[in-house]
Design brief:
The protein has one domain. The protein has 8 helices and no strands. The radius of gyration is 21 Å and the shape is globular. The N terminus and C terminus are likely disordered.
C-alpha cells in the first residue's frame, strides 16, 4: 500500500514534466517568431509599418483570447470524455468546436473587412499609420481561422497524449513563417537593390 502511494508522486512529476517542457518550448518558439517578425517588418517596410503592427495588437489579442477560450474548454471536456472511455463523445465535442471556430472566423473576417478603417482609428491609428494598420487588419482577419484553429489543434494534440508532436508542429510552423518573411523581404530588397543581398541588412 505504501509503495503504491510512494510511486504516485513520481509518476505525477514525470507526467507533469512531459507536458510542461514541450509547452514552454512552444511558447519560446512562438515568441521568437514574433521578435523576428518585428525585425523583418521594421527593416523591410519601415517604422510606420512596425507601428501599425503594434497598433493592431489588441485585435490579435482578441483572436488569442477566442482561441484560448475555445481550446481550453474543448480540451477539458474531451479529456473528461476520453477518461471515461467515451471516445465518440470526445470526437463530437471536437467537431462542434471546429464548426464554432469556422463560424466565428467567418464573422470576424466579414466584420473586419467591412470596418477595418474605423477599427484602425479605434485602436489608435493616426493619419500616418492608418493605411498600414488597415492593410494589416485585412490580412490578419483573412487568416483568423488559421490563427484560432492552429492553437486549438495544438492543445488537442497534447490532450491526445502527444505533447512533443504538438511542439514539433509549432516548430515547423515557426520555421515556415520565418522563411516566408525572409523570402518576401529578400525578393523585395533585390527588386529595389539588385546587388544588395538580404544579409546586408543590419539587424542589430
Amino acid at each position: 500500500m505504501s509503495s503504491s502511494h510512494a510511486a504516485l508522486p513520481t509518476r505525477s512529476w514525470k507526467t507533469f514534466a512531459r507536458y510542461v517542457a514541450p509547452s514552454v518550448s512552444a511558447m519560446v518558439l512562438f515568441s521568437s517568431y514574433t521578435i523576428i517578425d518585428g525585425i523583418f517588418v521594421s527593416k523591410g517596410v519601415g517604422e510606420l509599418a512596425l507601428a501599425a503592427v503594434n497598433i493592431s495588437l489588441p485585435f490579435i489579442n482578441i483572436l488569442s483570447g477566442i482561441a484560448i477560450l475555445l481550446s481550453m474548454g474543448t480540451s477539458t471536456l474531451c479529456a473528461f470524455a476520453m477518461g471515461n472511455q467515451e471516445h465518440d463523445r470526445a470526437e463530437e465535442i471536437f467537431t462542434q468546436t471546429v464548426a464554432v471556430i469556422l463560424a466565428v472566423s467567418v464573422l470576424l473576417t466579414v466584420g473586419v473587412s467591412i470596418f477595418a478603417e474605423p477599427l484602425g482609428y479605434l485602436l489608435g491609428a493616426g493619419p500616418q499609420t492608418i493605411g498600414y494598420t488597415t492593410q494589416y487588419l485585412h490580412i490578419i482577419c483573412l487568416f483568423s481561422v488559421c490563427f484560432i484553429l492552429s492553437y486549438c489543434l495544438e492543445v488537442m494534440v497534447k490532450v491526445d497524449g502527444a505533447p512533443i508532436l504538438a511542439t514539433i508542429g509549432v516548430g515547423i510552423k515557426t520555421i515556415v513563417l520565418t522563411g516566408t518573411d525572409g523570402g518576401i523581404l529578400f525578393f523585395r530588397n533585390r527588386s529595389r537593390h539588385p546587388l544588395t543581398p538580404l544579409l546586408s541588412f543590419s539587424f542589430f
